[in-house]
Amino acid sequence: MFARAANITRTGMANLVRYSHSHGGIPGENLPFSLTNRYKLTAMFIVFFGSGLGAPFFILRHQLLKK
């Protein structure tokens, strides 16, 4: 039973790798953003992490200013 599940998993992963259209070996190829523009990448990181770290403070401010 376990051998059959392992075989199905192995063939499924092989098909996933085979048909993923990835050439491999290129750093950052599988990322959803470009690494070529340094300033745009820096701005996107600031927005991404700033929104996650700042959200609790904005939510708290909103709750405290409600009537």
TrEMBL record:
It is a single-pass membrane protein. InterPro entries: COX7C/Cox8 (IPR004202), COX7C/Cox8_sf (IPR036636). The chain crosses the membrane at residues 41-60. It is found in: Mitochondrion inner membrane. Its main location: mitochondrion. Belongs to the cytochrome c oxidase VIIc family. GO terms for cellular component: mitochondrial inner membrane; respiratory chain complex IV. Keywords: Membrane, Mitochondrion, Mitochondrion inner membrane, Transit peptide, Transmembrane, Transmembrane helix. Pathway: Energy metabolism; oxidative phosphorylation. GO terms for biological process: mitochondrial electron transport, cytochrome c to oxygen. Gene3D superfamilies: Cytochrome c oxidase subunit VIIc. This is Cytochrome c oxidase subunit 7C, mitochondrial.
